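If I may wish for something, please walk me through the protein I am sending here so I can picture the backbone:
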Amino acid sequence: MKRIDDLDEAEILALAIANEEEDSRIYLSLANRLRPIYPHSAEVFEEMAAEEQSHRHSLLSLYERRFGKELPYITRQDVKGFLKRNPVWLMDGLRLDTARTQAALMEEEASSFYAQAAQRAHDVDTRKLLADLSEAEKSHQSLAQRLGETILTSDVTAEEDQTRHRLFVLQIVQPGLAGLIDGSVSTLAPIFAAAFATHDSWNAFQVGLAASVGAGISMGLTEALSDDGAITGRGHPWVRGAACGVATTVGGLGHTLPYLIPDFWTATAIAGIIVAIELIVIAWVRWRYMETPFTSAIVQIVLGGLLVLATGIFIGSS
């Protein structure tokens, strides 16, 4: 593996040509990944790929004038100092911010390489082209930002913000809400049944812990295995499964943890207060993200929760 100081001008130009080819292909891959959800941002990356191709043609023309048609085979992997790139362009569910961050890193590295290469070049035309490319890569801090100023209008940006919000609701809020409802409501009956059957806080805690963790595992697996997200656009199944499973467990543990208090009636009173808070939170999430009228959400959730709670108390007391 060589250092950049060990390269002659022919190798420097060949390496620059290889870099532009690779970067152009990466930008096109990012555009293809983003196009189904973020078509306007995909245009940005297509423009970036086109600009990299323009740089490549300029470098090829200069190389041919100086060194002929035989191009040495040298890539970034053959030279020390280049960063290993994380292949985000292969990721499922690629996030727009991740793609833009990757582009910014690529531009910064390319600009630094061209600046160093220009200092080593003795030919006036070569030095000028490399210096110009260095400036082009870092102009306006980011090529992605510069192109975004012309392509991503305020209306387009608002549209893509709405798309991100919709995906957040589909991939995180919906499965998390389903888990929170299941954990907060369905565990009420076994926990309070055990509590009122034994009047023992520790027994109620053990039942609640088992019910919460078991329900979390069950709900998480059910959500993850229900839909791979390829057609529905609901995102990676294990992300949704994790959101659902964790929310389910948290929902159950909320009114389980008070039973660590030895005094039964104190623990039960605190658990009842937490149940009320959980139901209000669920109603708020449904109103905030699912566009359910808050009054309707409160009535539905509170009524359902009270019915389950009463069932547990009735069974435990009988």
